[in-house]
Design brief:
- Helix 2 packs antiparallel against helix 3, helix 2 packs parallel to helix 4 and helix 3 packs antiparallel against helix 4.
- With about 80 residues, the chain is an all-alpha fold.
- The N and C termini lie far apart (about 45 Å).
- It is built from 4 helices and no strands.
């Protein structure tokens, strides 16, 4: 019984940890693409806003929201 509970807890925690670690990877990709991006000033401002929002949400533990904002920024950048 204890073994089953331990396994269930492990399987619940591992994917959450892996998901949380994708946010910094996405932020790094955005940061790398920003200097060479050819966007209008308005689009560049929106990308930077989404990037900042993603970082804030990640720090608050909302990894789903963070990834959604960061992926929107990636789409705008074409990466």
């Amino acid at each position: 019984m204890l073994r089953s509970i331990s396994l269930a807890v492990f399987l619940a925690v591992v994917p959450a940890t892996a998901f949380a670690n994708s946010c910094p990877t996405i932020m790094a990709a955005i940061d790398a693409a920003l200097p060479t991006a050819t966007l209008s000033e308005a689009d560049m401002a929106k990308v930077k806003e989404l990037r900042a929002q993603g970082e804030t949400l990640h720090a608050a533990g909302d990894h789903a929201g963070s990834e959604a904002a960061l992926n929107q920024a990636k789409t705008m950048l074409g990466i």
